[in-house]
Write a structure and sequence with these properties.
Rossmann fold; 6-stranded mixed β-sheet; about 35% helix; about 450 residues
Length: about 450
């Protein structure tokens, strides 16, 4: 069974290896769709259930996932990816103890206690931040670190590591790149909820760090179907339309040739005047983004003059058909590694993985590689905070990443651009972190 790329950067080169793909990956990454099948492997992986895999083992790692309840499909996909890492990378003494959180905080706390009772020295998961909060006191009482799949940095702590691709990481990457390309004035049209608040705070910090300007912040109710009023405010539409009308009236009262030429140019023009921004961040996805983007163009936010920026939510091929998003930039994990992983997953399980499944692979791979390093040194204690937060970090399916002592994660993301033919890699992901913790 061919293994996928995963490197413990502190033990080897800190750069991301380029794997030999089992098949040529597609040029355009796709959002997984349920129900599509692939060719099963000649030797299919054994079905995982709520049990200890490959007993007996001396180093046990708990894996907490919603294997029942509303998001059982996502939990199963993460488990499938975790199985790939287990069978490809784990050593003989590594054991994965799987427990169902039932998708609830109470279930997560019970699952955590169950894996600790079996001797787990590290907890991977759970998926949801509310469940992770419920697990925190259970793990803390046992002095066992937790690497959760959540991207909510509010729950991060000295022994609670947030592994998800956080909104602040995404915003930092795309704003840093946009500022480096000469964009100086930023705006944001954000949903009025906690996610929108997190994105706006991250944008405020990013523009301050880059010494650029945040000129406009507008929120909208994500539950409504009409945000025309908010877009008009964002675009200064009424003021710019009034300015066009005033110019038109002034020119109509003049008979000189220059005035007539200027009046001719104003025909069909609804607004005049510059927008107060040259880049706009749109932290939305799917149908919501497909509604917002053309509305901006309708109210004279011209994508030919204003760069549309997004988050990792934009890695969705349904967005390729929207003309106003053409040329938009957004951050995402390196597509080549994901495409190779996706092909491996499809061949093994007959379905396309959801994007979050890579976290399951990378988390188990991290745990397995740390265990192997400990085994090489004769240790049975591979999961100290120092091991998890080693400065050079790790390189996995989602690119390079490292955990900070605060529990937050740093990631090396690429910047992709939307083109009609697909997503192109505008700026590749970094292959190594600078020395030391930033």
């Amino acid at each position: 069974m061919a293994g996928l790329a995963f490197t413990l950067a502190a033990c080897a080169s800190p750069s991301v290896p380029t794997p030999e793909p089992e098949a040529q990956p597609p040029n355009v990454p796709e959002v997984p769709q349920a129900g599509e099948t692939g060719t099963p492997p000649e030797e299919p992986l054994p079905e995982a259930t709520e049990e200890t895999v490959a007993e007996p083992r001396q180093v046990k790692v708990g894996l907490l996932l919603p294997l029942s309840g509303a998001r059982a499909d996502v939990g199963q996909a993460i488990l499938n990816a975790a199985q790939l890492a287990l069978f490809e990378l784990a050593g003989d003494r590594f054991a994965l103890v799987i427990r169902d959180t039932r998708g609830t905080p109470q279930g997560a706390a019970a699952a955590a206690q169950a894996v600790l009772d079996e001797g787990a020295s590290l907890i991977l998961g759970p998926l949801f931040s509310t469940s992770a909060q419920a697990v925190q006191p259970v793990a803390a009482a046992a002095a066992v670190p937790m690497i959760t799949f959540s991207n909510n940095t509010a729950i991060a702590g000295p022994e609670t590591f947030v592994m998800g691709v956080t909104p602040s990481t995404q915003v930092n990457r795309v704003v840093d790149y946009a500022a480096a390309q000469g964009l100086r004035r930023f705006a944001v049209l954000a949903p009025e909820n906690e996610y929108g608040n997190v994105v706006v705070r991250a944008l405020q910090e990013a523009v301050f760090r880059n010494a650029v300007e945040l000129s406009r912040v507008v929120y909208y109710d994500p539950r409504t179907t009409d945000i025309s009023a908010e877009v008009q405010v964002l675009a200064d539409f009424n003021q710019r339309r009034a300015a066009a009308e005033a110019q038109r009236r002034d020119l109509e009262g003049r008979t000189d040739e220059a005035a007539q030429r200027a009046l001719q140019r104003l025909r069909g023009v609804e607004t005049v005047g510059l927008l107060p921004f040259d880049a706009i961040l749109l932290p939305a996805s799917g149908q919501q983004l497909l509604s917002v983007a053309p509305l901006l163009a309708y109210y004279d936010v011209d994508p030919a003059e204003v760069r549309f920026l997004g988050t990792a939510l934009w890695e969705d091929p349904t967005l390729l058909r929207e003309p106003t998003l053409q040329g938009g930039w957004f951050p995402a994990p390196p597509p080549a590694l994901w495409n190779t992983f996706r092909k491996r997953y499809e061949d093994s399980f007959g379905d396309k993985p959801p994007r979050v499944a890579s976290l399951g692979y990378d988390a188990v791979a991290l745990a397995a590689v740390l265990e192997q390093r400990a085994a090489a040194g004769g240790s049975f204690l591979p999961y100290s905070v120092e091991d998890i937060t080693q400065a050079l970090g790790f390189a996995g399916i989602d690119g390079i990443f490292r955990f900070l002592p605060s529990g937050e994660v740093q990631r090396g993301l690429a910047v992709l651009e939307i083109r009609q033919a697909g997503f192109i890699e505008r700026d590749p992901a970094p292959r190594a972190f600078p020395a030391g913790i930033n």
